[in-house]
Design brief:
This protein has 305 residues and is an alpha+beta fold. The protein contains ten helices and 13 strands. The chain folds into three domains: 7-85, Rossmann fold (3-Layer(aba) Sandwich), CATH 3.40.50; 93-109 and 176-300, ATP-grasp fold, B domain (D-amino Acid Aminotransferase, Chain A, domain 1), CATH 3.30.470.20; 114-174, 2-Layer Sandwich (Dna Ligase, domain 1), CATH 3.30.1490. The strands form three sheets. Strands 8, 9, 10, 11, 12 and 13 form a six-stranded antiparallel beta sheet that branches. Strands 4-7-5-6 form a four-stranded antiparallel beta sheet, covered by helices on one side. It has a three-stranded parallel beta sheet with strand order 2-1-3, covered by helices on one side. Pathway: Cell wall biogenesis; peptidoglycan biosynthesis.
């Protein structure tokens, strides 16, 4: 048996990403149990949070709102239960695509051009300013939920309406079309490391929910094909981007390349997926760390703010 005590694996939840979380959490639970760890399933949508007081540590495999936005982290703080991943502030920032961009811009990191949208926005003016294609997203959702790619003039308002079903705060981003990449991160403080970069090549129009979770024709390239110097620059930048929001434990930073090879940081995920299609386990495997080892390492890093 381990010295972790009684571990709650939090998964499921009530967000739009519930199904993904159920997939992630069941795999995490199995990986912990196979290593002799006293782990138990805990679904906050079906059990009162007060029941967590009987646990010694929590592995957060929740995605989306009330799971990676700082709220469950705050509850665990109040109960003095060490938990995996980032703390309250970093979790809240990472879930907010708009404020993450503001923070990165202030630190001098490159991000795609963007504009906030409301029902009263001059959509034609935003199309003109950003150019096509434009990606429209709910600010506080993950797993590509509510995202649209705008490729025709005078259709931005339709994409806004789709995203606004999930979040009153909607962001439009200039399409950066030279390639999509991601960098997984594991560790805290000076021991934080960037895992090998993965290039994502979806067979769909873009890396949407279907491409992420339900299709087998999305290509993941690791090695990613970038020149060594460029790859090293981006991985170093990913660590900086994660540290700037206050991230710890583990996470993932996504970025884009334009046609000239310039990179732009897109967003950060402070509670990455752990499904059989997920990117952090894939990158860890490329670095020589199998799935159970990764899960155990993340649990070892559990902390309180």
């Amino acid at each position: 048996m381990s010295d972790f005590g009684k571990v709650a694996v939090l998964f499921g939840g009530s967000s739009a990403e519930r199904e993904v979380s159920l997939n992630s959490g069941s795999r995490v639970l199995a990986a912990l149990l196979c290593q002799g760890i006293d782990a138990h399933a805990f679904d906050p949508a079906e059990q009162p949070l007060a029941a967590l007081k009987s646990y010694d540590r929590a592995f957060i495999a929740l995605h989306g709102r009330h799971g990676e936005d700082g709220t469950i982290q705050g509850a665990l703080e109040l109960m003095h239960i060490p938990y995996t991943g980032s703390g309250v502030m970093a979790s809240a920032l990472g879930m907010d695509k708009f404020r993450t961009k503001l923070l990165w811009q202030a630190a001098g990191l490159p991000v795609p051009e963007y504009a906030l949208l409301t029902a009263d926005s001059d959509f034609a003016d935003v199309e003109e300013e950003l150019g096509l294609p434009i990606f429209v997203k709910p600010v506080h959702e993950g797993s590509s939920i509510g995202i649209s790619k705008v490729v025709e003039r005078d259709t931005l308002h339709l994409a806004y309406a789709t995203a606004a079903r999930f979040d009153p705060l909607v962001i439009a981003e200039k399409g950066v079309m030279g390639g999509e990449y991601t960098v997984g991160i594991v560790g805290s403080g000076v021991d934080m490391i960037a895992l090998p970069t993965i290039k994502i090549e979806p067979a769909t129009e873009f890396y949407d929910y279907e491409a992420k979770y339900n299709r087998d024709d999305t290509r993941y390239l690791c090695p990613c094909g970038l020149a060594d110097a460029k790859d090293a620059e981006i991985r170093k930048g990913a660590l900086e981007a994660f540290r700037i929001i206050g991230g710890r434990g583990w996470g993932r930073v996504d970025f884009l390349l334009d046609e000239e090879g310039n990179h732009y940081f897109l967003e950060v995920n402070t509670s990455p997926g752990m499904t059989d299609h997920s990117l952090v386990p894939m990158a860890a495997r490329a670095a020589g760390m199998d799935y159970p080892t990764l899960v155990r390492r993340v649990l070892e890093l559990a902390a309180n703010d």
